[in-house]
Amino acid sequence: MEINIQKRVLEANENESERLKKFFKEKNVFVLNVMSSPGSGKTETLVKTLNRIMPKIRTAVIVGDICTTNDADRLQSTGADVTQINTDKFGGDCHLAAHLIESTAKEFDLERIDLLIVENIGNLVCPAEFDIGEDARTVVLSVTEGEDKPLKYPLMFRLAHSAILNKIDLLPYLEFDVDEAENNIKEVNPNIPVFRISATKEQGFDPWIEWLEKMVFSKISK
Amino acid sequence: MEINIQKRVLEANENESERLKKFFKEKNVFVLNVMSSPGSGKTETLVKTLNRIMPKIRTAVIVGDICTTNDADRLQSTGADVTQINTDKFGGDCHLAAHLIESTAKEFDLERIDLLIVENIGNLVCPAEFDIGEDARTVVLSVTEGEDKPLKYPLMFRLAHSAILNKIDLLPYLEFDVDEAENNIKEVNPNIPVFRISATKEQGFDPWIEWLEKMVFSKISK
User: Fold this and answer.
1) For testing the chain B interface, which of A7, A37, A71, A158 should be mutated: the one with the most B CBs within 10 Å?
2) Which candidate in A14, A86, A130, A145 is best for mutational testing of the B interface (most B CBs within 10 A)?
3) Which of B90, B122, B154 lies nearest to residue A67, judging by beta carbons?
4) What is the distance between the alpha carbons of residues A47 and A40, in angstroms, rounded to a whole number?
5) pTM over 0.90
């Protein structure tokens, strides 16, 4: 029963996300869906990313969390337009769905935005199943989480267009084989680019920023 | 629509878990549900825990993962009876449900088991909503994940009977305020015991083991 119910929810979301993709294309906005476990460093990565790409790329952010506006507050400090979605009022949802992104995105002045980043809810499972009208997906894995996570949560890594290995400044203190982690990512997604960074120390950002800018400018023309 | 569907699934699970609680009581087995984000160190914590409590407490483990048997292999090295549930064949479920625990638990010789530990799927959201017939819940948070997680994922921490702050050996290399993290846990769950440990370095285990043994022996009498 549960699986059939889940299928119906996913089908409804798919229809909404298809419509949303067309809407974002009309508006000439590139949408990036950023996902990870709780505490992998999505917000810190995005704060440092926004500082580098703005104002060249005019960026807005939708932040999903069950509770609190902590992440939105941090992102707002970059000067980007930021809206927080708290899913607590929708039953504590574990993912962002297309209909929520649609109603929230329409609050922005999209004519003046090139890139909409969605920082999804911290969860390596459910958000992978819900397309939210995005053009690309980036998954963040911190090196404190263990090398096997891409094999244990393969859907998330299989559907991503790029992966970030974050917190590499902690490698000297961990038994973490960063090459093995990258190999595990490539086992489920052979051609994915993997960027090794430290968001807090702002290390390794250049290739990531280059990839992101290339992706955005390949779609939009404002 | 989605919320109503979710309610029906949760109600069905609640009925099953109530039945399961009675079954475990009859069998005189204490059930502990262990939950956390991916990569917080549940498995390593349990390996070190099993080494300390067995054979005094005869323990079996059910390990939930979407894919792989990595965790089960590690736990089996302790000599405990271990069964892996891979939810991949159930649509990649993000949590363990009561009916899965019921069918799996019946494969063990429960007359010879005092404690059944369920290592849930790595996810701070969905597993909190699904009672699996457990007597107690322990949530593991690693200090690399940020102090605010109890406020962002309050249900998980509110329903827990104990919390473990893991990876404290990394504190010197992090900007992590361990007191603030503990205060945040107690903000959502004032009387919860919080154990600060390093599973890899096996530090701080005594109070945690004492709590666990006390819980188990308060219920079972074999």
Assistant:
1) A37
2) A145
3) B154
4) 14
5) yes
The shortest C-alpha distance from A2 to chain B (Å) reads 7
Name residues whose C-beta falls within 8 Å of residue B75's C-beta, 6 or more positions apart in sequence.
Answer: B43, B46, B47, B50, B61, B63, B82, B119
The CATH number that applies at residue A159 is 3.40.50.300
Q: State which residues form the domain around A138.
A: 2-220
> Which tens digits make up the pLDDT trace of A9-67?
888 999 999 999 999 999 999 999 999 999 999 999 999 999 999 999 999 999 999 99
For chain B, the domain total comes to 1
Helix (H, G, I), strand (E, B) or coil at B179: helix
Contact B121, B66 (CB under 8 A): yes
Q: How far is A183 from chain B (nearest CA, A)?
A: 16
φ/ψ region of B28 (left if φ > 0, alpha if ψ in -120 to 50, else beta) reads: left
- Is the Cβ pair B94, A37 closer than 8 Å? no
Segment B137-183, tens digit of pLDDT: 999 999 999 999 999 999 999 999 999 999 999 999 999 999 999 99
